[in-house]
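[agent] plan:
  1. take the single chain provided in the ticket
  2. run structure prediction with default settings
  3. attach structure tokens to the ticket
  4. add a short note for the reviewer (M.T.)
[agent] executing step 1
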Amino acid sequence: TLIKKKIIFFLSLILLNFISITKTEANDEIKIVAKINNEIITNIDISYEYNYLIALNNNLKNISLNEGLLIAKDSLIREKIKINELKRYFILENIDKKITDEVMVNFYQNLNLANEKDFSSYLDNYNLSLDNVREKIKIEILWNQLISRKFKDQININEETLKNEIEEKNLDLTKSIEFDLSEIVFQASNEIEFAEKIKQIKLSIENNGFNTSANKYSVSKTANFGGKIGKVEKNQLSDKIQEELEKIQIGQYTNPINIAGGFLIIFINDKIEITKKLSKEEILKNLIKFEKRKQLEQFSQIYFNKIKINTQINET
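[agent] step 2 finished; step 3 output follows
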């Protein structure tokens, strides 16, 4: 009868809808994919991290989704290791919002966005919020504070050497070279591992570009931004780095440079001649600041490697 046909039709619709919902729920099932001591990482966490990394570096879209998710997973593992260590020294919630907002400015300026409102709208495209980014910033700020606290007495800066360098190289001249640089910092425990890492990194740069390769291989905190260091004056760089940069042009990268805690590859995004009006005292202050930051970054990598060894990492 007509009534029976209608009933069967509506029951079919309900059944199809149920099947559709069941499939969606199965696809969105929360699974634990890693446990870092007592911190867990789920597939949902990795999806959000993937969105976060793509928001900071759109070049990640150029690689496969599976490869991108693996990068996101590694990024979260590093973050969880840091969180476990930070909990020993800090109450993570106790950090001034003004401090995170100051760092937030660097985030959206790196993305060529004008203000926080534009940044918020931009993040909406990746299902992210300003609070998500603040949480990330908070962890890095506390980590930097921890490294500074632990290693401040081990920072070694010879001001007299820097003063002599200013005099010998006439660094107070009105013209200088300013580089826009990106980096990949990687580690290798022996020559075989070093050769394999270099092979992988070069192949990745050739296929995916330098920024994406930085996301994948760099252990530096600049990795999330595709290794972007930003603008640096030539005189702030070590003689060895200056020497390597002299060998390449814009759009090229250096051979690996041996540094404390690993190896450094630098890519030149741009290079311009600038006119400056700085006193020798200001130049010295900038050199000291840059050297201090560089040494703390090296201590950070060494300390992270130390706590990683003592961290229980279980991946499924």
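[agent] step 4 note for reviewer: The chain is about 55% helix and 15% strand.
[agent] ticket updated
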